[in-house]
Structures are given as C-alpha cells and as structure tokens.
Amino acid sequence: MKAPASIKKAAAWALPYWTRGPAGRDTPQDLFRVLYYGWLVAFTLKVLGAAWDVSWHFKWLRDDLAPPHLLNSVGTVLAVTLTVIHGYTGYGVDKAALRLIQWGTGIFLVAVPLDLINHRVNGLDITSWSPSHIMLYVGTLFMVVGVVRGWFMGAPPGRERTVVLGVFFAFVLENVHFPEQHQEYGILSIGAWDNQATYAEPILLRFAADQLGRPVDRTTMTGFALPVPDFLYPVYAVVVGLAVLVIARSLIGRFGAATLVAGGYVGVRVVLWPLLTYTGFPPSAVPLFLVVGGLLVDVAFLVRQPVARAVLGSIGVTAAAYGALAAQSAIMGTVYGTLMGQRGLLGAPPLVMSSAVWAGVGLLVAWLAVEWMVARRATGPVGPRPVPAPATP
C-alpha cells in the first residue's frame, strides 16, 4: 500500500531536520511553529481527556482503559514525541526550556505506573489530591512551563506570539486548578443526593462505602465527594490559581491578559458543562470567580510601583475572589438550580470566609516573588535574540 501523497510530502519536509544538535539551535520559523502547534494539540487532547475523566469517576468505577484515559493518553504520546524531537534535534528550545520539558515528561511517566499501582493496592482513589495524582500534576506543570518558556523566548513579536502565549498560560491554569474539580463535582453530587437524585452508579457508591467502612448514606457521600478540608478550595485557588494569572499578566505585558487567560479556561469549562451533563455525566460547579480575580489582577497592574502593586493587588484580588465565590454560590445555585428543578445544585464548593486572610498572605508572597523575578530579569544581562535559520536545514 502506497503512502498518501500528503504523508510523503510531510516526511520529505521533516526528515532533513532530523539531525542531532544542542538545545538552542537556530530554528526555522516554519519548523518552530509546527513544533509548538503540536504542543497545542497535545495539551488540548490532555485537557479534554482530563475533564471527561473527572466526570467519569463521579459516575463509574475506575477503569484503566476508560475512554477519557485513552484520549488523555493520545495527548501524552504526542507530548512524549515532541519531547524526544526537542531533545534529539535541539530545535525550538533553549537549555532551560528543554530541561523543564524533559523533567516534566519524566515525572509524568514515572507517576503513571505509580498511580496504577496505587489503585491496584488501594482500590478507588477517594481524592484527586493523592500523592500519585499530585505527581501527575507536577509533571504536567513542568512540561507546560517549559513550553511556555520555549515559545516566549523563540516566537517572533506579534499578535500570534501574544495569543499563543495566552493559550499556553490557560493550559497552566487548567493544570494547577485541576485537583479543585474534585470539590466542584463533589458539591453538586451532594446536592443531588439531598434532592433524592444520585449521579454515581450503585457499584461506585457501594465501593466507596466499603472503603470508608460505612453504609451508603450522606456521610459516605460527603467522604467521597468532599474528602478535603473546606478551606483548601478557596485558599488554593487564590494562592496558586491567581498567582498563575499574575505571572501571565507580567509576561504577556498587556492589560486584559489575566482576564482573557482566566476567561479562556472558564469558557472551556462552560462549553464542556452541557456536553457532559446532557450526555449523562455528572455536572460540576464552574469556577466563574477566576474571571473576576483575573480582572482585578489586570487592574492591579495599573499601579506602577511593584511592591505597592503586589500589596494592593493581593488585598483587592483576594477580596474580589472571595466575594465572587460567595456570590456565585448564592446566585448561580439559585438561578440555574431552579431551572433544573433542583434548587441549589449549581453553586460552588463550601467557602470558609476566615481563610481569606491566609489566602491573601499566600498570594502576597507569590506576587512579591513574581515581581522580584521580573525585576531581576529586566536588570540582568540580556543576550541577543536568536536569529531564525534559513527555511531548510
């Protein structure tokens, strides 16, 4: 069987580039774009698979070959392939970006069998905050940060550079916020239980109850759906999630960048919500408050003095995020829950208002660290920008 002409043409274009070289090698712009648009596809597949996976695990028992895992695996295979290409050819990355990508891929690949072993030994994993899961998030974080650096350092100035950088930051936000989806699905699962409805299949409820040593009751549902302290959700979202938006605004350098990054991630969640819900999968609360937090990050950058910006920004962003989270719980839970005939189902995870102090302090520390790194980079030695190589190797 002859290969299609398009495959032959692609191979004829790509094969001459398959030569060994050090990281930081001059990269033709067409090759650079192909590599990083490949990363966009890889991360998109991983995000879609991961989003489906959370909803899947609130309905059925875990299955290694479940469709969400397979979709996620396709993205992982593409990511590993791109990592090998970068590492062997040296194209498209500097040394720092390559090390981040390689370490991230390595941590992720080590975490996968550890997670499988964990499930074999312990059965159902009650929380997305388990050590093996955290290793998966950390590996992905290193990987995405490496890609962000590679694109930031190598893409030519212009609209494409800005837009793609924003998309990559949306992937960073998705990755760090991912474990919080346990509470976002969990609160609605408990709401469904209170309204004499159950999203999970009986076999999943029975399995969770056996692990907790209890009958299938509300205590079991709470132990399965909300197994972590209530303060964790808002504190983590403010300190980690909104710190990502601070970094995004600093590097993109345009007003509205943080809002658009948050809006892009939340927008995907909004689109996926009906796709999952109306195909029989459990719904989740959507972190709309992140958009409000992103807007306040952008407003804070109107303050020119870095330390003042960090202090005022941390106070304003934390207050806005907590206020928006409280409003989301009250308003969205009433309006959309009423439309569904199940009042109160679409709110937000439990909110401990007193935790705002710790969230604000944590965000301040993170923000000051970002300002320090940006200032250090601005005053440090700046090397020449790599000159793109000719169109052929």
Q: What is the average per-residue confidence, as pLDDT, rounded to a whole number? A: 84
The strand count comes to: 0
User: What's the tally of helices?
Assistant: 14
- Low-pLDDT segments, ≥5 res: 339-345, 381-393
Q: What is the alpha-carbon Rg in Å?
A: 22 Å
Order of helices and strands: HHHHHHHHHHHHHH
The major sheet is characterized as: none
Verbal overview:
The chain has 393 residues and is an all-alpha fold. The chain is 71% helix and 0% strand. It has helices at residues 5-14, 29-57, 67-89, 95-122, 131-154, 159-177, 181-194, 202-212, 218-225, 232-252, 257-277, 289-300, 306-339, 356-379. Helix 4 runs antiparallel to helix 5 and helix 11 (257-277) packs antiparallel against helix 12. The two termini are 30 Å apart. Mean pLDDT is 84; it is low at 339-345 and 381-393.
Task: Map the helices and strands.
Layout: H1 5-14, H2 29-57, H3 67-89, H4 95-122, H5 131-154, H6 159-177, H7 181-194, H8 202-212, H9 218-225, H10 232-252, H11 257-277, H12 289-300, H13 306-339, H14 356-379
Helix pairs in contact: 2-3, 2-5, 2-6, 3-4, 4-5, 5-6, 6-10, 6-11, 7-9, 8-9, 10-11, 10-12, 10-14, 11-12, 12-13, 13-14
Kindly list the characteristics that best describe this protein.
393 residues, mainly alpha, 14 helices, globular, disordered C terminus
Short description:
The chain is an all-alpha fold and 393 residues long.
